[in-house]
Amino acid sequence: MRKLIWWVMMLGIMCGGVRAQELVRVDSEQPLTLDSLVAIGLRQNPQVRQSALALKLNRPGDMAAIGRFLPSISLGLNFSESQFENRTFVNPDGSVSSLPVTFQDVVIVPDSAGNLVLDTITVTQEPREGKSRSSSWSLNANLSLFEGGQRIFLYRIAQAQKKINTLSVADAHKSLTRNVAQQVVGVLTMEKVVALSKRLRDQRKDAYDLAKARFEVGAVTELDVLQAEIELGTAENTIASSERELEKRREDLNQTLGIDLRSRYPIAEAGSLSPYQFDLDQMVSDAYQNRTDLEIAWLRLKQARHNVNYSKGAYLPRVSIGASRAASEQSGADQPFTLNPRNRNTTYYGSLSWNLFDGFAREYDVASKRVELRRAEETERELRLSIEKSVREAYRNLETVYDQMQTTNRNRELANRTLELERERYRLGATSALSLRDAQVTYERAETDHLQKELEYQSSLIALELAVGRTLR
User: Fold this and answer.
1) Mean pLDDT of 254-270
2) How far apart are CA 63 and CA 40, in angstroms?
3) Residues 395, 252: Cα–Cα separation, whole Å
4) Exposure string for 196-221, b = 16+ CB within 10 A, e = fewer
5) Residue 330 C-alpha from the chain's centroid
6) What's the mean per-residue pLDDT of the chain?
7) Residue 47 belongs to domain with CATH number
8) 231 and 185 share a domain?
9) Residue percentage of the chain with pLDDT more than 90
10) Do 51 and 24 share a structural domain?
11) 8 and 52 in one domain?
12) Would 365 be classed as within a structural domain?
C-alpha cells in the first residue's frame, strides 16, 4: 500500500499537479537510486527552479534583438477642452480696468457724399468668456536602414546570451547532481557507521556477559566486569550519537532535494568503480567538451568580440526613413469630439546623420571594450589550464584513495580475524580482558578507517566527475 502511495505521489510530481508552495513528501519501501533522487531534486529543488526562470527570457530576448530591424510605429490621440474668461481690460495708457469698459474712439467713416471723415463713437467692451474643443490624432512610422552594423552585433550578443542562460540551467543541474551524490554518500556511510556501532555494541555485550560468567566462577576480578560494563555503556552512547547524525544527514539530503524533511526511503548503493579503468587523457578531452563553465566562458569571449564591433559602429553614419500622418480640428464647445478631424497633414522624410567628432568618447568606448575582450580571453585560457589541472589532480587523488582503501579493507579483515581469535581465547581463559579490549579497539579502528576511506573514495570520485563535467558511473 505504501509503495502504491509513493508511486502516485511521484506521478503527481512528474505531471506538475503539486503546487509550488507545497512540500512533497516521499515515503518508499523500495530503495531509490541516485538517478531517481536527482530526478526528484531537478523537479523540486528551489535553486534549480530559480535557475530555470532565466529560460523565460530567451524568447523575449530574441524578439527584442529582431525587433531592432523592424520599423517603430506610434499612434497618438488627443482630446482636449479649454475655456476662457476675460474680466480685465488694458487701457492705452497701460492701466488695467475691469470689464465692462466704455470709452470714446475715433473712427474713419464715409459721409453722405462718399468722402472719408473722422467721427467719434462710444465703445463698450463687455467681459469675454467661452469654450473650445480640440480633437487630433497622429500616426508615425520610422525605419532605421543603417546603424553602423550595430543591430547585427546586438542580435549575435542576444543569441550568445540565450545559450548562456541555457547552459546556466544545465550547470545548476550538474551542481545539484554533485550535491545530491555527495549527500547520498554521506547518508550511506552514516548508515554503515550505525550498523558498525551496533555490531560493536553486540560485541561489548558478549564481552560483558562473558566477563560476568567468568567472574561468577572466580576466573576474573570484578574490575574486569566493571570495565566491560563501562565499554558497553559507551557503545550505547555511540549508537545514539550515530543515529542522530544519520537523521541529520537524511534531513540535509531531503532539504537539497526540496522535499518534506520527514520523507523516508532507503537508498540503493551504486556499484564500485576502479580508477584504473579510466583513461586520463581522454577524461581531459572530455572535460573540454562537457564543462559548462568553459563553454559559458567561451560565449562570454564571443560576446566581448561582438561588443568591440558594436562600439566600432559608432564611427559610421546613421540612415533612416519615416512617415507621419496627422489630423486635427478645433471646434466650439457645442461641437462633439471627433475621430475624423478635417485638418490633415502627411509627412515623408529621410534622415542621414554622421557623428564626426564627439570628444574622443568613441575612442574610449572602443578601447574599453577591447580591454574587456582581452580579459575574457585570459579568463577562458586560465579556465582551460585550471580544468586540466583539476582533472589530473582528482584522478591522482582517486588512485591514491583507491589503493589506500584496499589496504584498509585487508586491515579490517585481519582485525576481525584477530578479534575472533582473542574472543575465543578469552572464553577459554587463555588471554586477559585487556588483550580482548585491545583487539576490540583495533577492530573498531580498522572498520572506522575503512569507512572513512570509502567515504573519501566516493567524494574523490564525485570530485573527478565534477572536473570532467559528466558522470562516470
Assistant:
1) 92
2) 33
3) 28
4) bbbebbebbeebbebbeebbeeeebe
5) 57
6) 87
7) 1.20.1600.10
8) yes
9) 61
10) no
11) no
12) yes
| pLDDT of res. 270 | 76
53 and 14 share one domain: no
Among 239, 170, 257, 145, CA closest to 198: 239
Closest CA to 37 of 259, 239, 271, 241: 259
In a domain, 57, yes or no: yes
Distance, CA of 56 to CA of 234 (rounded, Å): 57
What SS3 class is residue 247? Answer: helix
CA dihedral 325, 331, 334, 337 (to 10 degrees): 10
- Please provide the distance, in angstroms rounded to a whole number, between the alpha carbons at the two ends of the chain: 32
Whole domain around residue 2: which residue ranges? 1-29
| 244 SS3 class | helix
Distance CA 61, CA 154 (A): 10
Residue 371 backbone phi and psi in degrees, to 5: -65, -45
Q: What is the pTM of this model?
A: 0.75
Extract the C-alpha cell encoding 249.
544527514
Half-sphere exposure of 46 (CA within 13 A, CB side): 9
Assigned domain for 85 exists: no
* Number of separate domains in the chain: 2
C-alpha cell at 362: 568613441
- Give the sign of the dihedral formed by CA 253, CA 256, CA 261, CA 264: negative
Note the pLDDT of residue 17. Answer: 41
CA distance 369 to 375: 10
Provide CB contacts within 8 A for 244, sequence distance 6+: none
Q: Which amino acid, 368?
A: S
Instruction: Answer whether residue 246 is part of any domain.
Output: yes
Q: Are residues 260 and 295 in the same domain?
A: yes
Q: Give the residue from 316, 292, 272, 299 showing the smallest Cα distance to 457.
A: 272
* Same domain, yes or no: 10 and 54: no
